[in-house]
């Protein structure tokens, strides 16, 4: 069978194996360093676009009360299996960051690994920021990161990546439009099904937002922008940053 699947639905099967080199312990350390810098000790944290809950689970193991939300049921299925295997009590919810309503508020909200870049225009980005704002307690922190144009043009544009494994194989093709500030990634996967392989495709579309526009939208949505950092550091971003981390507070 061949078909175009929603982003991250079938990708979920191999996501953790493909992202094996991501150091989520280090990422959690970094998130905690931001909390410390702001003099905050959040207890309840919502992880928006949590995926397979790799970072969510690391933070849960550090005694944070975690909730995860994601648009892809396939990712949440993997996340729930991992949570059960680790004996961790985490609420994992299916939902869209632009429309979700959990009926409660959190001390802090995260949205990591360039998930915000999946908001394909300013209106969708602002809508997500408002939903997140509504789920923050007064003075709560919103911590998120975005990929930069430099990262896309240096490491992904016109690049093709491929891997072949016993249970799956994939081809990852990328094309960036500087005019539209949009990166389109076509993923072709082959998943073993008995003696055969099922082929399917996913199209991932990410929008690049410049830092000034992000700050403007955050302020319009009621946030105070506390900081912008080069990823994994507390240094200001530069023209050489591949990822920029934002810290904002609900006013």
- Sketch the major β-sheet: 7 strands, mixed
**Biggest β-sheet: strands ordered side by side in the sheet:** 4-3-2-5-6-12-11
Per CATH, the class of the largest domain reads Alpha Beta
Structural class: alpha/beta
Uncertain parts: none
* CA-based gyration radius: 18 Å
* Number of β-strand runs: 12
Element-level helix/strand string:
EHHEHEHEEHEHEEEEHEE
Query: Any idea how many domains?
Result: 2
The average pLDDT is: 94
Q: Kindly report the CATH topology of the largest domain.
A: Rossmann fold
Kindly, what is the distance between the CA atoms of the first and last residues, rounded to a whole number of angstroms? Answer: 51 Å
CATH superfamily of the largest domain: Vaccinia Virus protein VP39
Beta-strand proportion: 35-45%
Which second-level CATH architecture of the largest domain applies? 3-Layer(aba) Sandwich
Shape: globular
Please, could you describe this protein's structure?
By secondary structure, the protein is of the alpha/beta class. The chain has two domains: about 190 residues, Vaccinia Virus protein VP39 (Rossmann fold, 3-Layer(aba) Sandwich); about 55 residues, S-adenosyl-L-methionine-dependent methyltransferases (N-terminal domain of TfIIb, Single Sheet). The chain has seven helices and twelve strands. The strands form two sheets. It has a seven-stranded mixed beta sheet, sandwiched between helices. Helix 2 packs across helix 3 and helix 5 crosses helix 7. The longest helix has 14 residues. The protein is globular, with a radius of gyration of 18 Å. The model has no long low-confidence stretch (mean pLDDT about 95).
């Amino acid at each position: 069978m061949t078909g175009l699947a929603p982003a991250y639905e079938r990708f979920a099967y191999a996501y953790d194996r493909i992202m094996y080199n991501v150091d989520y312990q280090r990422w959690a350390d970094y998130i905690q360093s931001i909390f410390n810098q702001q003099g905050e000790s959040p207890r309840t944290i919502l992880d928006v676009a949590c995926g397979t809950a790799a970072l969510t689970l690391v933070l849960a193991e550090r005694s944070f009360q975690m909730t995860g939300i994601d648009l892809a049921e396939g990712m949440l299925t993997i996340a729930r299996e991992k949570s059960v295997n680790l004996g961790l009590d985490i609420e994992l919810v299916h939902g869209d960051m632009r429309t979700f309503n959990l009926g409660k508020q959190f001390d802090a909200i995260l949205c990591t690994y360039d998930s915000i870049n999946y908001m394909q225009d300013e209106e969708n980005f602002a809508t997500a920021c408002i939903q997140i704002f509504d789920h923050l307690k007064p003075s709560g922190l919103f911590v998120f990161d975005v990929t930069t144009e430099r990262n896309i043009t240096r490491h992904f544009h016109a690049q093709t990546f491929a891997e072949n494994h016993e249970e799956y194989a994939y081809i990852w093709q990328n094309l960036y439009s500087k005019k539209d500030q949009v990166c389109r990634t076509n993923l072709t996967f082959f998943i073993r099904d008995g003696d055969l392989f099922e082929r399917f495709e996913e199209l991932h579309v990410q929008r690049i937002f410049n830092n000034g526009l992000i700050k403007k939208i955050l302020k319009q949505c009621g946030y105070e922008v506390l900081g912008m950092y080069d990823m994994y550091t507390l240094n200001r971003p530069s023209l050489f940053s591949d990822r920029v981390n934002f810290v904002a507070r609900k006013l």
